[in-house]
Design brief:
The protein is α/β, with parallel strands linked by helices. The chain folds into two domains: 172 residues, D-serine dehydratase-like domain (Lyase, Ornithine Decarboxylase, Chain A, domain 1, Beta Barrel); 169 residues, Alanine racemase (TIM Barrel, Alpha-Beta Barrel). Helix content is 29%, strand content 24%. Strands 1, 12, 13, 14, 15, 16, 17, 18 and 19 form a nine-stranded mixed beta sheet that branches. An eight-stranded parallel beta sheet has the order 2-11-10-9-8-5-4-3. Helix 3 packs parallel to helix 4, helix 5 runs parallel beside helix 6 and helix 7 packs parallel to helix 8.
Length: 407
């Protein structure tokens, strides 16, 4: 028999190999079909609402996914920290929106170096002291015989939330302080609606979005922005429809640059964001199909130590556990990808560092040690950061690409 030579990915994975034979498990897997759909779907959503898309890269920290998002039309990539920005820029991302405060001289030095290398960079501010520190640092950082200019956005917060100015007077005072720092340029406003809670969160988020719009218009009218078409940005992965609707209104059209920042959409999930997407489609029945889960972790049955109990070689070091993982499909090792074997009424009861406990129903008599089980998880951020590489597979579970992470 002639053996086909398989190309080896730089991560050590044999491209063309199949998850059901010859791939060391557990493995984090991204399904190509849903991934392609999700990238296109969210890009089209943003464009239909007159907004730019800057997906939050902290979700995946996977350059191969950044490139897919940028190639689909994303305006930039959002990050959370200076080292994340450095990693993204080193992997070919030119526009970086750090939706966080830039604090500490070591972090400032990282960002200054990126700007010197040609990065387009934005960060947020919410305090007079941070403005003073940034202004001094960047005024003293010279490149081509002139000081660097740092583009900043004022963060608009809420009482009891995370960071951000708590009222309009703080925002106006901060805008004036930024104007007094020659090395800083106020280029927009930033917010995050996920910190808005209460008995009626939708009403609260709509009010918060309108508050962002109103403040942006007021700051523009007062001449506080250093550039035309200043940025107004918000939106996580749960309420992007509400934010997009608010940003699409007449006060911003043609005068501002609305930017949406969802991140989890790229692979979606089987928990928190699946529930959020159901709510989005309930609010917006005109949206077609919605997002599809693309991320799973494949692992094997390790032991059947007693009736009704399966131990899976999968643990907290392999998969997010905000909610317990759920068994989706089962396969025989070395078998065919379809049809899959039943996991009906399988219940994950506990997860440890390297082991997952599954309660099996009485009729689960065909389960064997070595069976391969695909698991879904909630909150993809906390699965991605456990892996140095994820495997992109086609609908036959053939490995097409090893996608390295850079956490």
């Amino acid at each position: 028999m002639q053996t086909m030579a398989l190309a080896v990915d730089k991560g050590g994975v044999e491209l063309g190999s199949n998850l059901l034979s010859g791939v060391s498990l557990p493995a984090a897997v991204v399904h190509e079909g849903p991934l392609v759909h999700n990238v296109a779907w969210m890009q089209q959503f943003a464009e239909a609402h007159g907004a730019r898309l800057a997906p939050h890269g902290k979700t995946t920290m996977t350059p191969a996914l950044f490139h897919r998002q940028l190639q689909a039309g994303a305006w930039g990539i959002t990050l959370a920290t200076a080292p994340q920005c450095r990693a993204a820029f080193a992997n070919g991302v030119p526009r970086l929106l750090m939706a966080n405060q830039l604090v500490g001289q070591a972090n400032m030095a990282i960002i200054a170096s990126l700007i010197e290398q040609g990065a387009t960079f934005y960060c947020v501010v919410d305090s007079q002291e941070n403005v003073r520190q940034l202004g001094r640092f960047f005024a003293e950082r010279f490149f081509d015989k002139r000081s660097l200019t740092l583009s900043v956005l004022i963060e608009v917060g809420v009482e009891g939330g995370r960071c951000g100015c708590r009222n309009q007077q703080q925002i106006l005072s901060l805008a004036e302080a930024i104007a007094d720092e020659p090395a800083l340029a106020l280029v927009g406003l930033e917010g995050y609606e996920g910190v808005v809670h209460g008995d009626d969160p939708e009403s609260g988020i709509r009010a918060y979005a309108q508050y962002l719009v109103d403040i942006a218009v007021a700051l523009e009218a007062a001449g506080h922005f250093a550039e035309p078409n200043p940025i107004v940005t918000a939106s996580g992965s749960a309420w992007y429809d509400v934010i997009a609707e608010a940003f699409q209104g007449a006060p911003l059209q043609g005068r501002f640059t609305p930017v949406l920042r969802p991140g989890c959409y790229v692979v979606h999930d089987h928990g928190l964001y699946r529930e959020a997407q159901t709510a989005v489609l309930g609010r917006r029945p005109d949206l077609q199909q919605g997002l599809e889960p693309a991320l799973e972790v494949f692992a094997q049955v390790q032991s059947l130590p007693e009736p009704g109990l399966a131990i899976i070689a999968l643990g907290k070091r392999d998969i997010g556990h905000d909610q317990l993982p759920m068994a989706l499909r089962r396969f025989r090792e070395g078998g065919a990808p379809s049809p899959s074997l039943s996991v009906a009424d399988w219940e994950v009861t506990k997860i440890m560092d390297q082991h997952t406990f599954v309660r099996l129903p009485d009729n689960a008599q065909d389960v064997e040690v070595g069976d391969i089980v695909a698991f879904g998880a909630s909150h993809p951020c906390l699965t991605f950061d456990k892996w140095r590489q994820l495997l992109l597979v086609d609908d036959q579970l053939n490995v097409k690409e090893g996608m390295a992470t850079c956490f």
